[in-house]
Design goal:
Helix content: 10-25%
Largest sheet: 6 strands, mixed
Order of helices and strands: EEEHEHHEHEEEEEEEHEEH
Number of strands: 14
Strand content: 25-35%
Shape: globular
Radius of gyration: 16 Å
Length: 206
Amino acid sequence: MVKIKKIISGVLEENCYVVYDSESLHAVIIDPGEDGEKVISEIEKDKLKPEMLVNTHGHYDHILSDDQVRLKFKIPLAIHKYEAEMLASVYKNGSKLFGYPKTVKTPEILLEDGQEVKLSFTVFKVIHTPGHTKGGICLLFDSFLVTGDTLFAGTIGRTDFDGGSYEKIMSSLSKIKKLNPSLIIYPGHGSNTTLANEIRHNPYLK
């Protein structure tokens, strides 16, 4: 059975997710955030076996421990092709602005919209959802959607950063609205929700 574990990482309380199979313990790590030691400790505590690391987008609070985590577990990093440049720039990923200037080594995998990524225990679909950033993505699994900073419970991600666009995030939300309303939403910050709940109550999805 595929399960999901949330690990809150860093001062901005970014949500790192570890999606894993309860039998094989194989896993994929999504957005490890700033606190690599905490993420590694939680994964080792549960004896999980990561196969891949994925970034939903390239802002510093989601990516600072990328290299630490991928080195520890010897796994490749995947990010949307439009977002890779953010990893290499302390200005584009925001880390310089917030006093944590750091870059991430070149990702091994560049993702594209509509791509299906096959792991040993599950498959997820990449949905390109620009607006918060140019190459932001959501990850669609069978019963849930990891939305990064595109969609939160009751609101949406900021669009005033470099690469952001209100028009594009509204277009991205239109794509999300067409998905199965029973999907559980796992956002980049804050609490979980459901797509049905957001369609009913989130003013940006009305």
